[in-house]
Amino acid sequence: MRLPIRAVTPETESAEIVGWVHEVRDLGGLSFFLIRDRTGIIQVTIPKKKVPAEILDTARSVSRESVVRVRGTVKAIEKAPGGREIVPEELEIISTAESPLPLDVAEKVSAEMDTRLDSRFLDARKPRVRAIFFIRSAVTCAATAFLASRGCINIATPKIVAAATEGGTELFPIAYFEKEAFMNQSPQLYKQMMMAAGFEAVFEIGPIFRAEEHNTVRHLNEATSLDVEVSFADHNDVMELLEDLIVHVYDHVAKDCSEHLAELEIDLKVPSKPFPRIPYAEAIEIANKTIEEKLAFGDDLSPAAERAIGDTVGQHYFIVDWPTDIRPYYAMPYPDRPEFCKAFDLMHPRMELSSGAQRIHDHDLLVERISAKGLSPESFEFYLKPFRYGMPPHAGWGLGIERLVMTMLDLPNIREAVLFPRDRHRLMP
Amino acid sequence: MRLPIRAVTPETESAEIVGWVHEVRDLGGLSFFLIRDRTGIIQVTIPKKKVPAEILDTARSVSRESVVRVRGTVKAIEKAPGGREIVPEELEIISTAESPLPLDVAEKVSAEMDTRLDSRFLDARKPRVRAIFFIRSAVTCAATAFLASRGCINIATPKIVAAATEGGTELFPIAYFEKEAFMNQSPQLYKQMMMAAGFEAVFEIGPIFRAEEHNTVRHLNEATSLDVEVSFADHNDVMELLEDLIVHVYDHVAKDCSEHLAELEIDLKVPSKPFPRIPYAEAIEIANKTIEEKLAFGDDLSPAAERAIGDTVGQHYFIVDWPTDIRPYYAMPYPDRPEFCKAFDLMHPRMELSSGAQRIHDHDLLVERISAKGLSPESFEFYLKPFRYGMPPHAGWGLGIERLVMTMLDLPNIREAVLFPRDRHRLMP
Fold it and tell me: Rounded to a whole number, what is the largest CA-CA distance in chain A?
């Protein structure tokens, strides 16, 4: 029975392990291998004069990153990783790696992002890269459990759609048999329809597709969105839910992923609730104190502005009370000052993580807002119909999983947080 | 504070509820409403002479399926649903439904599937329909927790891809900027690449897209697939994992979703392990005993054959030891009898739920099998490359979530198990 490498301790007597050859060293009478599996690294030491000839032959022929099986005696040895090594009684090459490798897994030579992504299967063998994706897995699993515990129903909405969420821009067209269709930008309209269906609280973790021309370190053309929508709730209610989720997920990662965090040399601080709520008008004032290109009321926040505010606030925060004109048509205006709306962004000091709002649930107001945005209510009929048959008040948000992971782990490029990024130029592997 | 309707008991003194007007009845001096939220139904009784005039006015104007808020005194009353009713002190219409409704939510008139799907937001208000999707949510959440507890890493693989998984058929083309791309049929190649990346055990729950022309009660063009892949495992190991998952999920639903199961009048039997393993050759013999169109060795199983075998076996079972020729190129042939391979299907008595196999991990054998299928190894280079740099032995499967829910809940049409189906003719809503 194979043991995970982490389970082999200095006290273990004998062990069988499988893994990849991380390093090979030859010191005259001794050969050393480092063998790596997803749980850790162990040294295999071959005293050339003491092992059977066939083990020596195999050891001589094995290349780095080949997959091997080793069975042998475990010895405590202070200098080795984890304070133990294996002296093999059996050594089998399960799968041979060609040389040279297209990428250095032992990270002695650092590679450009494009080179890394071209050989992502090798890149992701690096313990630091693996740590990111194991943490990402912990994030999505913890978010699923948390939202289910809060009574949210896990839904799956279609990714092939006939209409755009927010007008016709930034859509990838699909040939759907004899019809034209699009890859969905957002589950927005569908999760709202599930409020009309009386589901009351839903969530989805799934892909979204945006044909943005931007090719930056924080944009992807295919990303993973965590979407939530709750009935009989306003923007304040769902901001609290979002805040609770963020804190829960950070806390879970801090407790459950300590080895991966150590691998990344990250001392994860769990943010504390409540996050500050900063009105939009105040946010641009804060930004204008330091940024070069001053913002006027009604401007969207530039990346420079986001950084300036983030530097001032120094933690997660919400920007609230946005001008209605710069938010999507479905954001609910304040009844007493309709030039502002019940929309919010959740910000990490580095960038925006999530957008949300209380939504308009009144059919006629929604039609008015769609028209005011220069869109045609006719093309939204499938979405508008539910608003005529008992749509409850509701609110929700969408949270970018890659941005959440990127900011949590202080990654410089969003591509670090997705296994196989899709961007303006990359469609492979 | 609003109470969920289920939480209002005959012992409750007073309560505020929100919900949809399920039914309205007028009996001279008394008006009755049934109000429905996602947790249940409650009767609201209005003694016309005893309530304030404004409540009476509101009650007279309210239409079925409008959203209302009711605050009042709770009285135990045997004949009412749940043995209690509310006599309102406040009654507010939150959102008015137009009349007539495009679909009858109280299910007095049953509707055609197409009519139902055209107004899915109303259809899903029916307690029976809601029950299906709340159970589906329990299934995906329980599967996520189960697989995480078994050490599987939750991954997200791209849905926009440059190449087909199994040749060029049944793909939806996308215009990806200036390039042609496709919507992915299956995470197969990507989850295998994550085995090369040393992740050792992964899972994904996500959409798959198949441009099949079939328009049957068990095909969808967009479906949800639960995909698993495990390294250093063979077909038997992953069949056990799949079996454990099925039993776990059934058990979870049986325990956690008793009200939804009652709504569907389903007495859920948790299948018992191990499921029978029936070799393909034996399976066609069983089928040929009863079916009209006899199968020859090397034929795929027809729906009639699946039913015939299912009737004989009477429970979940595996079909194993398939002819290599009728399985995908990546299925591992038995070394001692390469005309058979280590592939399997998990069957419910009604239909196939899952396909899996130990995969080929040897590069040259894989190239040979791709060519033997009439495909070009050159177009699979991005997939083949990892096999040259230390690909471990691995096995896995893909499980259709809709089919799992459909068979669990004895639904006649797979469209019952997906909120917004996409089929040969349907792209809306």
Answer: 88
